[in-house]
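call fold(seq) -> tokens
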Amino acid sequence: MPSNRSVLLAAGLAALAGAGASLLFEPTLLYRLAGTDAGQAALQTVIAARAPAPPTGVHVARRGERMPSMALADLAGQQVRLPDAWAGQVTLVNLWATWCGPCLKEMPDLQAFSSEQGGNGVRVVGIALDDPAAVRPFLAQHGITYPVLLDVAGPADSGVRLGNTAGVLPFSALIAADGRLIKTRVGPFEDEAAIAAWVAESR
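ret:
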């Protein structure tokens, strides 16, 4: 006769297998879990545990801390100093690449959210971890008008400094008007309403 411990272990494994199968066959459940603060915290903890340590001297921001200072080029090749350039306005930063399918799926929703915000709401800024020669025509083709900065993917890129040590795309960060990191999100937003809700939860 199996012990209570064996029964509990078997039941636990069955529950985990069932949960895994649910995520495989019901992807909207994965979106719902990733859309909650608790789900994001769990997801980011698992991802961070598997990520390589950032290079020596690279500061990775934590919630409530001022984001690390950095300079990135805009599409015209001008250097933009961060977070100083974003001072006085809450900024939603979205890291993406032209080859990232989930990134491309959420960009129209980010564009719609940006247009809704106007000049006085939450600023949306993209950071493309990609070749500038691919980024510029892509933005024109897809009607993306919010500002986009350029960076090179690597162990010390802007995403790593904002907390994305595993380099998962898309990755979003919400930056306060005073440059503090409010929160981060791994994975795409489901739609424009999800973006608005994510931002509103922090204000």
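The helical segments are 4-25, 27-34, 37-50, 101-117, 132-142, 158-161, 192-200.
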